[in-house]
Write a structure and sequence with these properties.
By secondary structure, the chain is an alpha+beta fold. The chain is about 30% helix and about 25% strand. Helix 5 packs across helix 7 and helix 14 runs antiparallel to helix 15.
């Protein structure tokens, strides 16, 4: 709720106050407010109308003289009462009147101690009946809300999300400006490059047959700004990626993009850890301790994924040695057997436990199956287990599992087996899902840095090495000697920030030497000609004194959703797209005219909407 501090800005030719600022200290004042009709009700000869704007809600009370034929004052009251009776939801009105103390106060509203007795009411605009309730809780499906986004934004959850986003952006700009960073805008129309997600491309009318790409990030531009001597750059910037969408992904998204010269990894981590600390303190009054730094290898070993949520335990335990050699083929043929403990789930019914098998094999998790052990009783005198593998493993075997995993009476041990990386990854995703279901991920904040990523990963389909981050990431200096002999063992000078199991930012120390950059392109399968055609401008810049530099980018939409306690980023974006990448409000994307296509020298093989209807 925004209140008194906004009073001066809100005084205009239409109003003296906003709908959220009047208090008991204003009783007796003549005021004018403007806003939308939240609701109107008629009780015992009185009309109560709630007027809403961005700042809050104020109740107005219209008295009904019994016949309205007495004094001039009664006649005017009757007219105002009749107008109030006809006010519909979302009518835009202007009300002038005296502030009085309410007899029946409302603790739910900041203005609940007062109400306005109008001396004038004017309808500034009428409204059709909205397709859904403009309330904190609404009855509308998300698709309808997105179609009528201008109505959805009037609701407190969306309005407050956008206010939170604005305030977070202010903190970012203030912090970085105080640290000597310069905000520099980089081009939106740029060159299409390989690697990464698909580009959104834009045809050039003035250069027929040629295309711009919308930036997936300003990566090359910010490196060139370091060559240009800017030293510290940032930008809150729109980026674009043509990839599959989900709750925390949009085709256009916002990054806090940053780069620094003459810095080490520690310099960058300390600078931006402090920025995040400032944001969370200002926005949600949370004091982060110093962030843990965890190597990629440890993250994969203990949590299965490189963005673990550390608000709870549930570490992966290696059961390979205990699982093999008992005649159970799934374990005997597996590269690794890993388990986690779900506390308190061992007493669930077998039907409920078997539902977890379906979850494990779902597309979201990707496991081939799930083995489970319900710890019915573990004590010095007696051990009793129920298990999906009791045919192969005796109670003393399962007790060894329980001891290694740290399970106790009433717990459930969940186990997966298979290829090392894929099995750990599936268990890591399962761990996150179970953490959510057990309510372990609903409160608090935990931040860490994941460091020492592999520089490269091998693409089995393309039979070549690919950059795990991007081609401009530098290797650890001590690993450079392995680049051509054992490229899979080379660690990157890269880092990700993870908060509550969400990757909120990532970056690296960059390659600033032309020869090293050339070696990297060759390792990734680029010919010298291809590298020059795609990145010649950057390679050329490196010949004119490129400083050592590095940086990172934060997903601003995701960060806002964490600050707001939500899993979807859509409320924090004013006009988001749906899962098909469509803006339902403006109906985009859409077809363009034949004339436009001809001007761009483009022909399309896709059928138009009208052609599809005829077919």
């Amino acid at each position: 709720m925004e209140g008194k501090s906004k009073a001066l800005e809100c005084k205009t030719g239409y109003r003296t106050h906003n709908c959220g600022e009047l208090r008991l200290g204003d009783v007796g004042k003549e005021v004018t407010i403007c806003g939308w009709v939240q609701k109107s009700r008629d009780k015992r000869g009185m009309a109560f109308v709630d007027i809403r704007d961005r700042y809050g809600i104020t109740q107005c009370v219209f008295a009904n003289p019994l016949d309205g034929t007495g004094s001039i004052e009664d006649v005017e009251k009757k007219k105002r009462y009749e107008i109030a009776q006809k006010l519909g939801r979302e009518f835009v009105v202007q009300v002038t009147g005296k502030v009085i103390e309410r007899s029946a106060k409302s603790k739910d509203k900041a203005t609940g101690d007062i109400e306005i007795v109008p001396s004038s009411v004017k309808v500034l605009n009428s409204s059709k009946t909205p397709p859904f309730l403009i309330e904190t809780k609404t009855d509308a499906l998300e698709e309808i809300r997105m179609k009528y986004r201008y109505l959805d934004i009037r609701r407190n959850p969306v309005k407050n999300a956008l206010i939170l986003r604005h305030k977070a952006a202010q903190v970012v700009r203030n912090y970085l400006s105080e640290e000597g960073f310069i905000e520099v805008e980089t081009p939106v129309l740029m060159k299409s490059t390989p690697e990464g997600a698909r580009d959104f491309v834009v045809p050039s009318r003035m250069n027929p047959g040629q295309f711009y790409a919308l930036p997936q990030s300003p990566q090359t531009f910010k490196q060139i700004l370091m060559v240009a001597g800017i030293d510290r750059y940032f930008q809150i910037v729109k980026c674009f990626r043509d990839e599959e969408l989900r709750a925390d992904r949009q085709p256009e998204f916002t990054q806090i993009d940053c780069e620094m010269s003459f810095v080490t990894q520690d310099d960058i981590l300390n600078t931006f850890e402090n920025m995040i600390r400032a944001i969370f303190k200002k926005m949600v009054d949370h004091e982060f301790p110093k962030f843990e730094r965890m190597s990629y290898d440890v993250a994969i070993r203990d949590y299965g994924i490189d963005k673990p949520d550390l608000r709870y335990g549930m570490k992966l335990k290696d059961l390979t040695a205990l699982g093999k050699g008992k005649g159970f083929k799934v374990f005997d043929e597996a590269e690794v057997v890993v388990g986690i403990v779900c506390e308190g789930l061992g007493n669930r019914s077998k039907k409920k436990i078997k539902e977890l098998e379906k979850l494990a094999k779902s597309q979201a998790i990707g496991a081939t199956g799930l083995i489970w052990v319900a710890c019915k009783e573990i004590s010095e005198k007696k051990c009793k287990f129920a298990s999906s593998v009791s045919k192969f493993f005796k109670d003393e075997d399962l007790l060894a599992w329980a001891k290694l995993c740290g399970a106790k009476t009433g717990d459930l041990i969940c186990v997966m087996a298979g290829p090392d990386f894929k099995t750990r990854e599936a268990m890591g995703k399962f761990r996150h899902e179970m953490g959510t279901r057990l309510g372990l991920r609903s409160k608090g904040f935990y931040g860490l840095w994941v460091v020492d990523f592999p520089l490269l990963e091998y693409d089995e389909d393309e039979k070549r090495w690919c950059a795990m981050h991007h081609p401009f990431t530098s290797p650890k200096p001590e690993d450079e000697k392995l680049l051509h002999k054992e490229p899979g063992k080379v660690r990157a000078n890269a880092y990700d920030m993870v908060i509550n199991g969400v990757e909120v930012g990532g970056g690296s120390i960059r390659i600033h030497n032309r020869e090293m950059q050339k070696k990297m392109f060759q390792l990734l399968g680029f010919t010298d000609e291809e590298a020059e055609a795609q990145f010649g401008f950057l390679m050329g810049a490196f010949e004119y004194g490129a400083p050592p530099h590095g940086g990172l980018a934060f997903g601003f939409d995701r960060m806002c959703s964490i600050l707001g306690g939500e899993t979807s980023i859509r409320n924090f974006i004013a006009f988001p797209k749906n899962k098909q990448g469509r803006d339902l409000m403006i109906e985009a994307p859409s077809e363009i005219s034949k004339k436009q296509l001809e001007e761009l020298c483009i022909a399309t093989t896709a059928k138009t909407v009208n052609e599809q209807k005829k077919a």
